[in-house]
Design a protein that fits this description.
The chain is of the alpha+beta class. Strands 1-2-6-3 form a four-stranded antiparallel β-sheet. Helix 4 packs antiparallel against helix 5. The protein is globular and about 65 Å long. It starts with a helix and ends with a strand.
């Protein structure tokens, strides 16, 4: 029986044993350039409770800022685990992927190699179980990312139980 942790570890190493962070980064934009003393960055983080002085923003602004950001596996599974991502399509996709993993029967390794062409056109000859595993991970990734982007487009990806805080900085750095 596959678990959510096993699904997450197909993409990045996760443990889920540590307590939830005080805040989760949703979006970070950094306009710094190498060799330039001028620094500018913006950030949106989700917190359970706002603190005094936090610049709390509404969900409309959150979705406007994150609408062109990537689907980063290092954040997605943590945010699902800690209850930040609650989109119905994303959670249904997680269940679908767990069903796929539970019903999967990898092929036996009979010693033959299968030709695999990666996204850059490189060719690898892999054992059948490895080829099957790579294709399965690719299939699961497509299902999860499609659901993630659909929920984000429908503007119901993130939980209303969090407050969303905007922080930014711009100015010259004295350290460089």
């Amino acid at each position: 029986m596959s678990t959510f942790l096993e699904l997450a570890n197909r993409f990045r190493t996760h443990t889920f044993s540590k307590p939830a962070d005080e805040s989760h980064t949703l979006w970070h934009k950094d306009d710094n350039s190498v060799g330039n003393r001028y620094r500018r960055w913006e950030n949106i983080a989700a917190k359970r409770e706002a603190e005094e002085g936090d610049n709390v923003i509404d969900m409309e602004r959150v979705y406007e800022c994150v609408k062109f950001s990537a689907c980063d596996w290092s954040y997605i599974f943590d945010q699902i685990h800690y209850g930040l991502i609650t989109g119905p399509k994303t959670l249904a996709a997680v269940e679908e992927c767990l069903d796929i993993l539970n019903n999967d029967e990898p092929p036996e390794d009979d010693g033959t190699k299968v030709r695999h062409v990666n996204r850059l056109g490189g060719v690898n000859y892999l054992p059948k179980p490895t080829y099957h595993d790579w294709n399965l991970t690719d299939r699961i990734g497509k299902i999860l990312s499609t659901a993630f982007f659909a929920d984000r487009k429908d503007r119901n990806l993130y939980s209303e139980d969090f407050v969303y805080v905007y922080t930014s900085h711009s100015g010259y750095s004295r350290s460089t």
